[in-house]
Design brief:
The protein is of the alpha+beta class and 84 residues long. It has one domain (3-83). It is 30% helix and 56% strand. It has one helix and four strands, in the order H-E-E-E-E. It has a four-stranded antiparallel beta sheet with strand order 1-2-3-4, with no helix packed on it. The longest helix is centred in the first third of the chain and has 25 residues, at 3-27.
Length: 84
Amino acid sequence: MQKKTLRRIAFTVIAAPALAVATPALASADAYYSSHSSGAGHHGAYSHTVKAYAGDGHAWYYESSSHAGPHGAYSYHVSSGSHR
């Protein structure tokens, strides 16, 4: 074989494992979502928040809502998370 061909084969043998390890890391992506709304009027006031995240082996979700009006007030909070 020619030296040029041997160099190409050697480079491929060295580069292939590095690419196999690095490619999944490049393909992974984190995702984040956040939403907030609030308002006030003659029926009362409200606020609502939603947040979510997924990535790096973690995932969590958070939701919060509150309302105050002429018939009283209430609020609730929901949260959840995981880690692999």
